[in-house]
Amino acid sequence: MNAPAPLSHSIARFVRMSPQKGRLVADLVRDRYVGEALTILRFSERKKISAILEKVLRSAIANAQQKSPNVDVDTLYISQIQINGGPVAKRIRPAPQGRAYRIQKRTSHVHIYLNEKGK
Predict the structure, then answer these.
(1) What is the pTM of this model?
(2) What pLDDT sits at residue 119?
(3) Which domains does the chain have, with CATH numbers?
(4) Which of 12, 16, 46, 52 is deepest in the core (most CB within 10 A)?
(5) Which residues are CB-contacts of 75 (< 8 A; sequence separation ≥ 6)?
């Protein structure tokens, strides 16, 4: 059985955070109501990605209200949240005895999909 099509979604691309670190916070809010998710993101402020996820989530809520003005925000929940890897910037760090170490500066693409419970 196929999952219902999302009511709205929002995307943030090229976020300067590794996907592995972002997924730790994304797992906290997956399958939760948006009000509860916003509270969790507000109080997990020690992680940089939480502010970015909060901004993308607010954008998805605004998209849902714009798409269908009669939607009840209290029934919206995060049906899907994905943090995929983006392009990696490769830098060189000098190392002892003429060697060089590679530094990988990773980026992420954040996708948040919202749906209504009971629909």
Answers:
(1) 0.89
(2) 58
(3) 8-116 (3.90.470.10)
(4) 52
(5) 33, 116, 117, 118, 119
